[in-house]
Amino acid sequence: PVQRTLSIIKPDAVGKNVIGDIIRRFEENGLSVIGTRMTHLSAAEAGRFYAVHEGRPFYNDLCAFMSSGPILAMVLEGQNAVVLNRQLMGATNPKEAEPGTIRADHADSIDANAVHGSDSEENAAIEIAFFFSDLDLQSRG
Ligand code: CMP
């Protein structure tokens, strides 16, 4: 099915100037960018975005890292977009990421891991709504 998912290019990858390389991988694999927003979250905003992880041992470091610089949030649309995006990203821990994935090529650590992607269609809807209004999205359907 055609799905939408939220992708975030994290502060480490924005800082390395690899936005274009990451978007190229999405487009070459059949995903279309239907909305983009560059922003710099406060730690409190990062905490709200990652509220599902509140209480986990890595939560504070995660919020500090995600508010350390600008990010690019975008909505990807395409067949099986949720799983396809996660395949293109590779494993959360770059040491475990398959060669050729975004994280294998651009991530430095489990926190500075270049990209975020929604883990389910249900969470994708919640995460998209965090950054975007429907008016911001241009479906290519
Ligand atoms: P992300 O997909 O953005 O979702 C939560 C983030 O927490 C994850 O990527 C990692 O960058 C970070 N993180 C740090 N430690 C862990 C961990 N042990 N398990 C999962 N995520 C972690």
Automatic annotation (TrEMBL):
It is found in: Cytoplasm. This is Nucleoside diphosphate kinase. Major role in the synthesis of nucleoside triphosphates other than ATP. The ATP gamma phosphate is transferred to the NDP beta phosphate via a ping-pong mechanism, using a phosphorylated active-site intermediate. It catalyses: a 2'-deoxyribonucleoside 5'-diphosphate + ATP = a 2'-deoxyribonucleoside 5'-triphosphate + ADP; a ribonucleoside 5'-diphosphate + ATP = a ribonucleoside 5'-triphosphate + ADP. GO terms for cellular component: cytoplasm. ATP binds at K10, F58, R86, T92, R103, N113. Keywords: ATP-binding, Cytoplasm, Kinase, Magnesium, Metal-binding, Nucleotide metabolism, Nucleotide-binding, Phosphoprotein, Transferase. Its EC number is 2.7.4.6. It comes from the Bacteria. One of its GO terms (biological process) is GTP biosynthetic process. SUPFAM superfamilies: Nucleoside diphosphate kinase, NDK. Transmembrane segments: none annotated. Residues 2-139 form the Nucleoside diphosphate kinase-like domain. Its cofactor is Mg(2+). PANTHER family: NUCLEOSIDE DIPHOSPHATE KINASE, NUCLEOSIDE DIPHOSPHATE KINASE DDB_G0292928-RELATED. Belongs to the NDK family. GO terms for molecular function: ATP binding; metal ion binding; nucleoside diphosphate kinase activity.
